[in-house]
Each structure stands twice: as structure tokens, then as C-alpha cells.
Amino acid sequence: PDPLRAAAEVQAKTATETEVQVNHDPDYYPTPPDVVSTMLAYVPNHVRGEGTIRILEPSAGNGTIIRKALAWWPWAEVYWCETNYTARKFLAALKREMKGMTVQELGADFMEVETDLRFDVVLMNPPFSRNQWKHHVQKAYGLLKPGGRLVSIAPREAERYNTENGTFSGWIRSLEWDAVPLPNNAFESSGTNTQTHVLVIDK
């Protein structure tokens, strides 16, 4: 076993268990490590080699997704956004902890970020309230390189995408996508029983 990877896995679990004061943010539900592992399993093989991988995490929270991604691919370049002030302070420590790795802040509010960077992979657990997650997913998809993949946590409503009328449903039907339900209690450790799935979209 790789001791560096094992240590990073422990750090990821610890990060999830660490209380981060988020100023009563109703959208703050950290991604449990086992859910992150499920997400990472959907990163396509062609970006898993040892060449440079550029990863975007648009709502980084306490950094669990970033930590685990770098445990799997320590050569990756990871860029993140996060609006919550306290969580941002927690994330600022990542660069010191991940010595020799590229962990770079892209901005605070992802929806206000403008960048020329394009990404091989987007890994995200966006805010759900007021359907914000749909806008986040659409913007993040626009930042993918051709051949890139977006892997997002989303509310479990995929069964409606192929039948309902709506801007998001019409948009996603034009793409190559899949949705994999997560266990009903996937986010129980984060304080919610919201039913979710892993949404996978290719560009």
C-alpha cells in the first residue's frame, strides 16, 4: 500500500469529521469520503494517467473532494471556489498541507468567476437550494475541455430529465449524461437525508 495515499485518505476522513462553522449556511453539507470515492470512480480512464490533470472543485466546502482527488492523483492541478468565509480559511491550509501539489483558489463565488482555464474534470457538490445546482452544473460544464467529464452530486430527480419540460432538462438531453443513485443515507453523516445521485456529463 502507498503510505502517502493512506495518509491522505486519513486526512480526507478527518476533514469531513472536523466541524467547520459555516454561518448557518443552509447549503453546507460536506461530501462524505465514501461518496467522494464513488465520484472519483467515474473519472474516465484517459485522464487517470500520470500526465497533467486539471481539476475544478467549484464549491469546495471543507476540502474533502480536493484531498481525496489529490490522494488518487497527486500530480493533478486542482482549482477551487468557496463563498463561505470560515470554510475558505479552512481551505487556505490545504496548500500548506499538500506540499509540492498544485492547489489554487480560483475565486470565491463560482457563479461570478471568469477564467480562460479549461478543465479535464469537474468534481462538485453544488448548493441545492433554489435550484442553484442546475446553474452551477451548466456553468461548470462550460469550463470543461473537449473530452472532459463533469461528476456532480445532484438531487435524485434524473428520472424526470427525459420527460419534463424545462430549460435544464432540455439542455441535459442534448448531452451525453448518466445519473447513478446513491444510497438513501449517503449524506446522513453530514446531517441530511436528501436523496441524491451522482450526475455524470461528458463533453
Number of helices: 6
Radius of gyration over all CA atoms, rounded:
16 Å
Beginning-to-end CA distance, first to last residue: 34 Å
Question: How much is the average pLDDT?
Answer: 85
Structural class: alpha/beta
Plain-language structure description:
By secondary structure, this protein is of the alpha/beta class. The chain has helices at residues 3-17, 33-40, 64-72, 85-97, 132-142, 167-173, and strands spanning 54-57, 77-81, 102-107, 119-124, 144-155, 176-181, 196-202. The protein has 6 helices and 7 strands, in the order H-H-E-H-E-H-E-E-H-E-H-E-E. The chain has a 7-stranded mixed β-sheet with strand order 3-2-1-4-5-7-6, with helices on both faces. Helix 3 (64-72) links the parallel strand 1 (54-57) and strand 2. Helix 1 (3-17) packs antiparallel against helix 3 (64-72).
Short description:
The protein has six helices and seven strands.
Sum up the structure in keywords.
31% helix, seven-stranded mixed sheet, 203 residues, alpha/beta, 7 strands, 23% strand
How is this fold's topology laid out?
Blueprint: H1 3-17, H2 33-40, E1 54-57, H3 64-72, E2 77-81, H4 85-97, E3 102-107, E4 119-124, H5 132-142, E5 144-155, H6 167-173, E6 176-181, E7 196-202
Helix pairs in contact: 1-3, 2-3
